[in-house]
Specification:
The protein is built from twelve helices and eight strands. By secondary structure, the protein is of the alpha/beta class. It folds into two domains: about 180 residues, NAD(P)-binding Rossmann-like Domain (Rossmann fold); about 80 residues, N-(1-d-carboxylethyl)-l-norvaline Dehydrogenase, domain 2 (Orthogonal Bundle). Strands 3-2-1-4-5-6-7-8 form an eight-stranded mixed β-sheet, with helices on both faces. Strand 5, helix 6 and strand 6 form a beta-alpha-beta unit.
Amino acid sequence: MINKITVIGSGTMGNGIAQVSAMAGFETSLFDISKKQLDLAELKINKNLDKGFELGKIAAEKRDNAKEKLVFTEDFEMAVKDSDLIIEAVPENMELKKKIFSDAEKFVHKETIFATNTTGLSITEMGNATKREDKVIGMHFFNPVHIMKLIEIVKSKSTSQETYEIVKAVSEKMGKQTVKINEAAGFVTSRMNALIGAEAFRMWEEGVASPEDIDKALKLGLNHPMGPFEMIDLVGLDVRLASMKNLEEHLGPAFKPSKKLEELVEKGRLGRKTGKGVYDY
């Protein structure tokens, strides 16, 4: 039985996951080492909930209940203590993710499930950093979390069927649809998105078309809801670059990041979150 969920990391994905967790009725702790980041997350979540009410998408009671279910904290022990499910949503750094799970293990009960929101890093490697490999699983949400309907649930060879079933039930209670994926680099969506994005950058570098026209072509010609450059600006160029490097390492040169992507990241043009990416916002 999952009663309390802890989300580690209050950035774009973390605050979105905390919001849908609280809206689903779970006691929810959102942890971050940065008080400033937590304050921003609280403002964003409250704004989303209030807007949902104003648009008639959620009732006032559900909005208010969600706010009451949320706790924002810089105290790691308090955040994870008595938690039944921990979802980490920190940057794509394997050592950081492993440390979070290793540290959490000091304070949680033996049945606590560890889930990672990684876009493609190894679930097995994270599980090996714990004493509960059977309770470590991938839970890949999509941005914006409160709108996007899918969660990729990723099983390592050690993940138990019981863990999978519990996480699937939690996902459905959050109002999400799920797909079951056996661990592989990039899972399904990140792998496909990376290929499309890589080819889009190649066409831009070769002068085939501008980012605006490439996006327009895929939206109007292939019925994509967003163009590849709009997508990467939403996801974050730094996040995509880290994903590409991981995919290149595991799957080969087809996933080699473009020089232009690397240059944009070096310049601090990381997408919507910084106000500048491929496009200016």
